[in-house]
């Protein structure tokens, strides 16, 4: 009777390995390709840390002067002493132009 027990155990182990070795009937599809870069050259992704960082013509002081000259502050905010920070994300293209401008966060109450 002992040999029958070993035969059934052997068949059970072989059957378990056979079931485990079957291919998955519902394989996981590969992830979709990343979306194309809008405003840039097809296939090129923006550099997060380029070798040479872009510099504003005239430096940071001139940049702040140009921003303050171009900024339009609403009159109602001036009257009510409303202020805050606006966080902006953008891409500097190879030719120096700004594209893909997004407002990430603005002051509460707008």
Overview features:
single chain, 110 residues, alpha+beta, two-stranded antiparallel ribbon, 33% helix, elongated
Structural class: alpha+beta
Instruction: Give helix and strand order, one letter per element, not per position.
Output: HHHEE
What Rg do the Cα atoms give? 31 Å
Low-confidence stretches: none
What count of helical segments does DSSP give? 3
How many E-type strands? 2
What average pLDDT do the residues reach? 76
- Give the helix proportion (percent range): 25-40%
- Cα(first) to Cα(last) distance is 85 Å
What is the global morphology? elongated
Strand content: 5-15%
How are strands sequenced across the largest beta sheet? 1-2
Q: Main β-sheet: number of strands, strand sense, barrel status?
A: 2 strands, antiparallel
Query: In the residues, how many domains can be counted?
Result: 1
Overview of this protein structure:
The protein has helices at residues 2-20, 59-70, 75-79; strands at residues 87-92, 98-105. With 110 residues, it is an alpha+beta fold. The chain has one domain. A two-stranded antiparallel ribbon has the order 1-2. The radius of gyration is 31 Å and the shape is elongated. 0% of the residues are buried. The model has no long low-confidence stretch (mean pLDDT 76).
Concise structural overview:
The chain has 110 residues and is an alpha+beta fold.
Give the secondary structure arrangement, pairings included.
Blueprint: H1 2-20, H2 59-70, H3 75-79, E1 87-92, E2 98-105
Antiparallel strand pairs: 1-2
């Amino acid at each position: 009777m002992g040999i029958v027990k070993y035969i059934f155990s052997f068949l059970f182990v072989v059957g378990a390995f056979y079931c485990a070795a079957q291919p998955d009937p519902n394989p996981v599809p590969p992830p979709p390709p990343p979306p194309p870069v809008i405003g840039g050259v097809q296939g090129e992704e923006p550099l997060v840390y380029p070798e040479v960082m872009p510099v504003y013509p005239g430096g940071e002081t001139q940049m702040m002067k140009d921003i303050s000259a171009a900024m339009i502050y609403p009159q109602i905010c001036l009257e009510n002493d409303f202020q805050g920070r606006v966080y902006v994300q953008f891409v500097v293209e190879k030719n120096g132009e700004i594209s893909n401008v997004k407002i990430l966060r603005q002051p509460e109450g707008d």
